[in-house]
Protein backbone atom coordinates (compact mmCIF):
# COMPACT_ATOMS: atom_id res chain seq x y z
CA UNK A 1 0.00 0.00 0.00
CA UNK A 2 1.30 3.47 -0.91
CA UNK A 3 1.03 6.11 1.78
CA UNK A 4 -0.67 9.30 0.56
CA UNK A 5 1.86 12.13 0.51
CA UNK A 6 -0.80 14.65 1.49
CA UNK A 7 -1.49 12.71 4.71
CA UNK A 8 2.19 12.68 5.69
CA UNK A 9 2.43 16.42 4.98
CA UNK A 10 -0.68 17.04 7.06
CA UNK A 11 0.71 15.16 10.04
CA UNK A 12 4.09 16.89 9.88
CA UNK A 13 2.52 20.34 9.50
CA UNK A 14 0.48 19.71 12.65
CA UNK A 15 3.60 20.14 14.78
CA UNK A 16 3.23 23.65 16.32
CA UNK A 17 5.98 26.26 16.16
CA UNK A 18 7.95 26.95 19.36
CA UNK A 19 6.41 29.03 21.44
CA UNK A 20 46.46 47.06 10.19
CA UNK A 21 48.13 44.54 11.67
CA UNK A 22 50.98 45.62 14.03
CA UNK A 23 53.59 42.89 14.35
CA UNK A 24 54.75 42.70 17.92
CA UNK A 25 55.16 40.20 20.68
CA UNK A 26 52.02 38.20 21.19
CA UNK A 27 51.21 37.45 24.81
CA UNK A 28 51.15 34.19 26.59
CA UNK A 29 47.96 34.25 28.56
CA UNK A 30 47.60 31.59 31.25
CA UNK A 31 44.69 31.85 33.64
CA UNK A 32 45.21 31.75 37.39
CA UNK A 33 44.52 28.65 39.40
CA UNK A 34 41.16 29.37 41.05
CA UNK A 35 41.22 28.93 44.80
CA UNK A 36 37.49 28.23 44.93
CA UNK A 37 36.49 24.82 43.64
CA UNK A 38 33.16 26.29 42.47
CA UNK A 39 34.84 29.08 40.53
CA UNK A 40 33.81 27.40 37.29
CA UNK A 41 31.13 24.88 36.48
CA UNK A 42 30.73 22.39 33.66
CA UNK A 43 27.77 22.60 31.26
CA UNK A 44 24.98 20.08 31.57
CA UNK A 45 24.47 17.45 28.89
CA UNK A 46 21.02 17.71 27.40
CA UNK A 47 18.97 16.02 24.70
CA UNK A 48 15.73 16.88 22.92
CA UNK A 49 12.42 15.11 22.88
CA UNK A 50 10.90 14.24 19.50
CA UNK A 51 8.46 17.12 19.85
CA UNK A 52 11.20 19.65 20.64
CA UNK A 53 13.39 18.44 17.76
CA UNK A 54 10.57 18.89 15.26
CA UNK A 55 9.75 22.29 16.72
CA UNK A 56 13.29 23.60 16.35
CA UNK A 57 13.63 22.15 12.85
CA UNK A 58 10.45 23.87 11.76
CA UNK A 59 11.51 27.19 13.36
CA UNK A 60 14.89 27.03 11.62
CA UNK A 61 13.30 26.33 8.25
CA UNK A 62 10.86 29.21 8.68
CA UNK A 63 13.67 31.56 9.70
CA UNK A 64 15.90 31.19 6.67
CA UNK A 65 14.33 28.87 4.13
CA UNK A 66 16.72 26.05 4.94
CA UNK A 67 17.74 25.96 8.57
CA UNK A 68 19.48 22.61 8.46
CA UNK A 69 23.29 22.41 8.62
CA UNK A 70 25.31 19.45 7.31
CA UNK A 71 28.57 17.87 8.38
CA UNK A 72 31.11 16.84 5.71
CA UNK A 73 29.81 13.26 6.03
CA UNK A 74 26.30 14.42 5.11
CA UNK A 75 24.72 14.12 8.55
CA UNK A 76 22.26 16.90 9.37
CA UNK A 77 22.23 19.02 12.51
CA UNK A 78 20.86 22.17 14.10
CA UNK A 79 22.40 24.81 16.35
CA UNK A 80 20.09 24.97 19.35
CA UNK A 81 19.94 27.73 22.00
CA UNK A 82 22.18 27.11 24.99
CA UNK A 83 23.02 30.24 27.00
CA UNK A 84 22.15 33.94 26.77
CA UNK A 85 24.33 36.54 28.47
CA UNK A 86 22.56 39.91 28.36
CA UNK A 87 20.87 42.67 30.30
CA UNK A 88 20.65 43.01 34.06
CA UNK A 89 21.72 39.39 34.68
CA UNK A 90 24.83 39.50 32.49
CA UNK A 91 27.37 39.78 35.29
CA UNK A 92 25.76 36.99 37.33
CA UNK A 93 27.38 34.47 34.99
CA UNK A 94 30.87 36.01 35.03
CA UNK A 95 33.77 36.11 37.45
CA UNK A 96 35.89 39.25 37.75
CA UNK A 97 39.64 38.71 37.39
CA UNK A 98 41.48 40.91 39.88
CA UNK A 99 45.07 39.70 39.74
CA UNK A 100 48.08 41.15 37.92
CA UNK A 101 47.65 41.13 34.16
CA UNK A 102 49.42 38.03 32.73
CA UNK A 103 50.21 40.05 29.58
CA UNK A 104 52.11 42.72 31.60
CA UNK A 105 49.51 45.37 30.90
CA UNK A 106 49.62 48.62 32.85
CA UNK A 107 46.23 48.12 34.44
CA UNK A 108 44.74 47.34 37.81
CA UNK A 109 42.07 44.73 37.19
CA UNK A 110 39.43 45.36 39.86
CA UNK A 111 37.04 42.94 41.55
CA UNK A 112 33.28 42.96 41.05
CA UNK A 113 32.36 45.25 43.93
CA UNK A 114 34.98 47.82 42.92
CA UNK A 115 33.99 47.63 39.26
CA UNK A 116 30.35 48.35 40.06
CA UNK A 117 31.13 51.05 42.64
CA UNK A 118 33.56 52.86 40.33
CA UNK A 119 31.33 52.68 37.27
CA UNK A 120 33.68 50.39 35.36
CA UNK A 121 30.97 47.75 34.86
CA UNK A 122 27.24 48.35 34.65
CA UNK A 123 24.07 47.78 32.64
CA UNK A 124 22.22 50.77 31.20
CA UNK A 125 18.49 51.32 31.43
CA UNK A 126 18.14 50.01 27.88
CA UNK A 127 20.07 46.84 28.79
CA UNK A 128 23.43 47.67 27.22
CA UNK A 129 26.25 45.90 29.08
CA UNK A 130 29.16 48.29 29.57
CA UNK A 131 32.70 47.45 30.69
CA UNK A 132 35.29 50.21 30.59
CA UNK A 133 38.64 51.60 31.62
CA UNK A 134 38.75 54.49 34.08
CA UNK A 135 38.45 57.63 31.90
CA UNK A 136 37.99 60.29 34.60
CA UNK A 137 41.05 60.04 36.92
CA UNK A 138 44.29 61.87 36.17
CA UNK A 139 47.25 59.69 37.16
CA UNK A 140 50.87 60.36 38.11
CA UNK A 141 53.32 59.11 35.48
CA UNK A 142 54.03 55.42 36.01
CA UNK A 143 50.70 54.64 37.70
CA UNK A 144 48.49 51.88 36.34
CA UNK A 145 44.90 52.66 35.34
CA UNK A 146 41.87 50.75 36.66
CA UNK A 147 40.22 48.38 34.18
CA UNK A 148 38.07 45.26 33.91
CA UNK A 149 38.50 41.64 32.89
CA UNK A 150 35.68 39.12 33.23
CA UNK A 151 35.34 35.44 32.31
CA UNK A 152 32.38 33.07 32.18
CA UNK A 153 31.77 30.67 35.03
CA UNK A 154 30.63 28.09 32.51
CA UNK A 155 33.18 26.18 30.43
CA UNK A 156 32.70 25.22 26.79
CA UNK A 157 34.11 22.53 24.53
CA UNK A 158 32.59 23.48 21.21
CA UNK A 159 29.57 25.54 20.29
CA UNK A 160 28.37 28.50 18.29
CA UNK A 161 29.09 31.85 19.96
CA UNK A 162 27.33 35.00 18.68
CA UNK A 163 28.09 38.40 20.17
CA UNK A 164 26.13 41.53 19.30
CA UNK A 165 28.01 44.76 20.12
CA UNK A 166 27.50 48.46 19.58
CA UNK A 167 31.19 49.18 20.19
CA UNK A 168 34.47 47.64 21.33
CA UNK A 169 37.44 49.43 22.98
CA UNK A 170 39.97 51.27 20.83
CA UNK A 171 42.56 54.05 21.01
CA UNK A 172 46.28 54.63 21.52
CA UNK A 173 47.69 52.28 24.22
CA UNK A 174 44.42 50.32 24.35
CA UNK A 175 44.46 46.55 23.85
CA UNK A 176 41.08 44.81 24.20
CA UNK A 177 40.20 41.19 23.67
CA UNK A 178 37.16 38.95 23.29
CA UNK A 179 38.65 35.48 23.49
CA UNK A 180 38.36 31.98 24.88
CA UNK A 181 40.95 29.75 26.48
CA UNK A 182 41.43 26.69 28.68
CA UNK A 183 41.81 27.03 32.42
CA UNK A 184 45.50 26.12 32.71
CA UNK A 185 44.95 24.53 36.12
CA UNK A 186 48.02 22.41 37.04
CA UNK A 187 49.01 19.88 35.88
CA UNK A 188 47.51 21.37 32.69
CA UNK A 189 49.81 24.10 31.37
CA UNK A 190 48.76 26.75 28.84
CA UNK A 191 48.24 26.32 25.90
CA UNK A 192 47.41 22.63 26.35
CA UNK A 193 43.70 23.38 25.92
CA UNK A 194 44.19 26.07 23.29
CA UNK A 195 43.26 29.73 22.92
CA UNK A 196 40.99 31.41 20.38
CA UNK A 197 41.23 35.19 19.93
CA UNK A 198 37.95 36.19 18.31
CA UNK A 199 38.27 39.98 18.44
CA UNK A 200 41.55 41.71 19.24
CA UNK A 201 43.54 44.76 18.25
CA UNK A 202 45.66 47.61 19.55
CA UNK A 203 45.84 51.38 19.28
CA UNK A 204 43.99 52.80 16.25
CA UNK A 205 43.94 49.60 14.22
CA UNK A 206 41.07 49.32 11.79
CA UNK A 207 41.26 45.58 11.16
CA UNK A 208 40.39 42.89 13.67
CA UNK A 209 43.10 40.27 14.16
CA UNK A 210 41.96 36.70 14.79
CA UNK A 211 44.41 34.19 16.22
CA UNK A 212 44.83 30.67 17.60
CA UNK A 213 47.52 29.64 20.11
CA UNK A 214 48.07 25.91 20.59
CA UNK A 215 50.38 23.07 21.43
CA UNK A 216 52.64 21.81 18.59
CA UNK A 217 50.98 20.09 15.65
CA UNK A 218 48.25 22.54 14.70
CA UNK A 219 48.61 24.47 11.40
CA UNK A 220 46.41 26.06 8.76
CA UNK A 221 45.21 24.01 5.83
CA UNK A 222 46.21 25.94 2.68
CA UNK A 223 42.99 24.71 1.06
CA UNK A 224 40.79 26.39 3.67
CA UNK A 225 38.55 29.11 2.22
CA UNK A 226 38.20 32.38 4.13
CA UNK A 227 38.19 36.10 3.34
CA UNK A 228 40.90 37.35 5.73
CA UNK A 229 44.63 37.75 5.11
CA UNK A 230 47.39 35.74 6.77
CA UNK A 231 50.16 38.06 7.98
CA UNK A 232 53.80 37.08 7.51
CA UNK A 233 57.16 37.60 9.16
CA UNK A 234 60.08 38.07 6.77
CA UNK A 235 58.10 36.43 3.99
CA UNK A 236 56.90 33.48 6.09
CA UNK A 237 53.16 33.24 6.62
CA UNK A 238 51.89 32.80 10.14
CA UNK A 239 50.22 29.47 9.57
CA UNK A 240 51.68 27.53 12.52
CA UNK A 241 49.58 27.90 15.66
CA UNK A 242 52.31 26.51 17.96
CA UNK A 243 52.62 29.04 20.80
CA UNK A 244 56.25 28.07 21.41
CA UNK A 245 57.28 29.50 18.03
CA UNK A 246 57.74 33.08 16.76
CA UNK A 247 57.35 34.73 20.15
CA UNK A 248 53.91 33.17 20.53
CA UNK A 249 52.56 34.81 17.39
CA UNK A 250 50.25 31.84 16.84
CA UNK A 251 48.43 31.51 13.54
CA UNK A 252 46.77 34.78 12.59
CA UNK A 253 44.22 36.13 10.16
CA UNK A 254 43.61 39.86 9.65
CA UNK A 255 40.08 40.75 8.59
CA UNK A 256 39.75 42.60 5.29
CA UNK A 257 37.24 45.21 6.46
CA UNK A 258 38.42 48.57 7.82
CA UNK A 259 35.30 48.57 9.97
CA UNK A 260 36.00 45.30 11.76
CA UNK A 261 37.80 47.06 14.62
CA UNK A 262 38.09 50.51 16.12
CA UNK A 263 36.37 53.79 15.38
CA UNK A 264 34.68 52.77 12.13
CA UNK A 265 33.21 49.69 13.79
CA UNK A 266 31.46 51.99 16.27
CA UNK A 267 30.47 54.61 13.68
CA UNK A 268 28.53 52.15 11.56
CA UNK A 269 26.58 50.88 14.55
CA UNK A 270 28.73 48.00 15.66
CA UNK A 271 27.66 44.56 14.51
CA UNK A 272 27.77 40.84 15.15
CA UNK A 273 30.71 38.45 15.40
CA UNK A 274 30.11 34.71 15.31
CA UNK A 275 32.51 31.90 16.16
CA UNK A 276 31.63 28.31 15.22
CA UNK A 277 33.63 25.63 16.99
CA UNK A 278 32.92 21.98 16.30
CA UNK A 279 34.78 18.85 15.31
CA UNK A 280 35.09 20.04 11.70
CA UNK A 281 36.61 23.51 12.07
CA UNK A 282 36.75 26.72 14.07
CA UNK A 283 35.45 29.58 11.92
CA UNK A 284 34.77 33.25 12.62
CA UNK A 285 32.46 35.66 10.77
CA UNK A 286 31.96 39.41 11.18
CA UNK A 287 28.82 41.25 10.08
CA UNK A 288 28.15 45.00 9.85
CA UNK A 289 25.03 46.13 11.66
CA UNK A 290 23.18 46.50 8.35
CA UNK A 291 24.25 43.04 7.16
CA UNK A 292 23.42 40.78 10.11
CA UNK A 293 21.82 37.59 8.70
CA UNK A 294 18.12 37.19 9.35
CA UNK A 295 18.60 33.71 10.81
CA UNK A 296 20.80 35.22 13.54
CA UNK A 297 18.14 37.83 14.32
CA UNK A 298 15.56 35.02 14.48
CA UNK A 299 17.72 33.03 16.94
CA UNK A 300 17.92 30.14 14.45
CA UNK A 301 21.52 30.56 13.21
CA UNK A 302 22.64 28.69 10.12
CA UNK A 303 26.37 29.27 9.41
CA UNK A 304 26.09 27.34 6.15
CA UNK A 305 24.25 30.35 4.70
CA UNK A 306 26.77 33.00 5.77
CA UNK A 307 29.35 32.63 3.01
CA UNK A 308 33.09 32.40 3.59
CA UNK A 309 34.19 33.20 7.14
CA UNK A 310 36.84 35.79 7.95
CA UNK A 311 39.07 33.01 9.29
CA UNK A 312 38.92 29.22 9.43
CA UNK A 313 41.04 26.60 11.19
CA UNK A 314 40.32 23.19 9.68
CA UNK A 315 40.53 19.79 11.35
CA UNK A 316 42.48 18.51 8.33
CA UNK A 317 45.74 19.97 9.70
CA UNK A 318 44.78 20.42 13.35
CA UNK A 319 43.17 17.91 15.71
CA UNK A 320 40.56 20.29 17.03
CA UNK A 321 39.03 17.81 19.45
CA UNK A 322 42.34 17.24 21.22
CA UNK A 323 43.69 20.80 20.95
CA UNK A 324 40.78 22.88 22.25
CA UNK A 325 38.74 22.10 25.36
CA UNK A 326 37.21 23.51 28.55
CA UNK A 327 37.23 27.15 27.53
CA UNK A 328 36.02 30.12 29.51
CA UNK A 329 34.87 33.16 27.51
CA UNK A 330 36.77 36.37 28.35
CA UNK A 331 36.33 40.11 27.86
CA UNK A 332 39.21 42.33 28.86
CA UNK A 333 40.74 45.77 28.35
CA UNK A 334 44.43 46.08 29.07
CA UNK A 335 46.76 48.98 28.34
CA UNK A 336 50.32 48.93 26.96
CA UNK A 337 51.72 45.50 27.87
CA UNK A 338 53.40 42.93 25.66
CA UNK A 339 51.61 43.87 22.44
CA UNK A 340 50.34 47.45 22.76
CA UNK A 341 53.41 48.53 24.73
CA UNK A 342 56.00 46.92 22.46
CA UNK A 343 54.31 48.25 19.31
CA UNK A 344 53.57 51.79 20.55
CA UNK A 345 56.68 53.37 19.00
CA UNK A 346 55.68 52.02 15.55
CA UNK A 347 52.37 53.94 15.54
CA UNK A 348 51.33 57.53 15.08
CA UNK A 349 50.35 57.74 18.74
CA UNK A 350 51.96 60.63 20.64
CA UNK A 351 54.61 60.32 23.34
CA UNK A 352 55.20 57.01 25.07
CA UNK A 353 52.72 54.40 26.21
CA UNK A 354 53.24 55.26 29.88
CA UNK A 355 52.75 58.95 29.15
CA UNK A 356 49.51 58.14 27.39
CA UNK A 357 48.11 56.66 30.62
CA UNK A 358 48.29 59.95 32.54
CA UNK A 359 45.33 61.80 30.99
CA UNK A 360 41.88 60.20 31.47
CA UNK A 361 40.42 61.78 28.31
CA UNK A 362 42.68 59.47 26.29
CA UNK A 363 40.41 56.57 27.27
CA UNK A 364 36.89 57.76 26.58
CA UNK A 365 36.64 55.12 23.81
CA UNK A 366 38.10 52.33 25.92
CA UNK A 367 34.84 50.52 26.61
CA UNK A 368 32.66 47.61 25.57
CA UNK A 369 28.98 48.15 24.80
CA UNK A 370 27.36 44.73 24.44
CA UNK A 371 23.79 43.86 23.55
CA UNK A 372 24.13 40.12 24.05
CA UNK A 373 26.34 37.07 23.88
CA UNK A 374 24.41 33.97 22.85
CA UNK A 375 25.71 30.42 22.68
CA UNK A 376 24.27 27.48 20.81
CA UNK A 377 24.95 23.76 21.05
CA UNK A 378 25.15 21.27 18.19
CA UNK A 379 22.32 18.76 17.87
CA UNK A 380 22.33 16.01 15.25
CA UNK A 381 18.96 15.49 13.62
CA UNK A 382 19.90 11.84 13.16
CA UNK A 383 20.32 11.42 16.91
CA UNK A 384 21.75 13.01 20.00
CA UNK A 385 25.24 14.51 19.97
CA UNK A 386 27.16 14.41 23.23
CA UNK A 387 30.56 15.63 24.32
CA UNK A 388 32.89 13.15 25.95
CA UNK A 389 35.38 14.15 28.65
CA UNK A 390 38.30 14.27 26.23
CA UNK A 391 36.40 16.73 24.04
CA UNK A 392 35.47 14.22 21.32
CA UNK A 393 31.97 13.90 19.95
CA UNK A 394 29.76 10.83 19.65
CA UNK A 395 26.31 10.41 18.15
CA UNK A 396 23.42 7.93 18.17
CA UNK A 397 22.26 7.65 14.58
CA UNK A 398 19.25 5.44 15.26
CA UNK A 399 16.95 7.96 16.96
CA UNK A 400 15.46 9.74 13.96
CA UNK A 401 15.04 6.50 12.03
CA UNK A 402 13.07 5.08 14.95
CA UNK A 403 10.88 8.16 15.07
CA UNK A 404 10.07 7.96 11.35
CA UNK A 405 9.22 4.27 11.58
CA UNK A 406 6.89 4.96 14.48
CA UNK A 407 5.24 7.84 12.60
CA UNK A 408 4.76 5.89 9.37
CA UNK A 409 3.53 2.89 11.32
CA UNK A 410 0.93 5.03 13.04
CA UNK A 411 -0.32 6.42 9.72
CA UNK A 412 -0.51 2.94 8.22
CA UNK A 413 -2.53 1.75 11.18
CA UNK A 414 -4.97 4.63 10.85
CA UNK A 415 -5.46 3.87 7.15
CA UNK A 416 -6.05 0.20 7.87
CA UNK A 417 -8.69 1.06 10.46
CA UNK A 418 -10.48 3.45 8.11
CA UNK A 419 -10.59 0.79 5.40
TrEMBL record:
Record keyword Signal present: yes
Keyword Signal: yes
Gene Ontology molecular-function annotations: hydrolase activity, hydrolyzing O-glycosyl compounds
InterPro entries: Beta-glucanase-like (IPR000757), ConA-like_dom_sf (IPR013320), Glycosyl_Hydrlase_16 (IPR050546)
Keywords: Signal
Superkingdom as given in the UniProt entry: Eukaryota
Stored Pfam families: GH16_XgeA
GO BP term, example: glucan catabolic process
GH16 domain mapped to chain residues: 75-305
Full protein name: Concanavalin A-like lectin/glucanase domain-containing protein
UniProt organism field: Crepidotus variabilis
